[in-house]
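Listing 4. Sequential folding, example run.
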Amino acid sequence: MSLESTSSLLMATCAFQGIRLSEFRHSQLHTILYEHIRKELAPVLLISPLPMDCLQALTMMSLWNMSPITQTKPEFIDSWLISGHSVQQGMLAINFTEILANIKNGQASANDKLSLRVWNTICLVHLR
């Protein structure tokens, strides 16, 4: 099972973040992918609680200002607003009580560790 088939938003966000390090930054491809992600984000912001892959995608979109520079200004994605939404949704999606109990019992799973890593990243991104 590939990332593309399990979470198209996370896959598009990963590709989009890779553009900032390539020669395609501020190209037509950059603009097309930006618009695709922007349109996919709208319905995601209405889901509650968000699945972990959507939380990761939102957090990644909050890291850098990646709006393309074009003649026709695209809609701006407010990274601070998205990171704040990620914090709210993270509090709903992550069962901290269960994770703490698993850690105390020495039974922390890989999913518990992933949840805590995502939560830490969300908090750091929002503080930034």
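-- end of first protein; second protein begins --
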Amino acid sequence: MKKMLKVYLVLIAFFAFVLSGYSQVTTSGISGKITDANNEALPGATVLAVHQPSGTQYGTIANSEGRFALQGMRSGGPYKVEISFVGYNKATYTEITLYLGESFGLNASLKEQSVDVAEVIVVGSKPSAFGTGKTGASTNISTEQMTLLPSINVMVV
């Protein structure tokens, strides 16, 4: 009887393991590479994808090679994708449709944009060591409180 119970448990565990391999994929993704006009990677470029019907937003930043990957996105569309980087014109892609379980390839090349800065003002101040912005534990003791605190006397004979 115990031997049959063990066989049934092993069979149930086997079928549970096999059936877990047939799970469904319910999402899609977008991946690609962001470069400049000279085909050099733009690490730190921002990618923002918006699912138009629901307004769901997905965002990421390009890695050191200029590559990005957005996973776990809703299938379907349309999507609007905006890619931006400081000093470059923003690239916008619309009417992108994602298919179930697939990653849409989107490679972008951004063009340089001239930035005109009129004036930059840097203001700073040295923080006081006794200012109110201190962090951590602290205790202030007056002279009167100091005389009332217990002390230890060690007598050397």
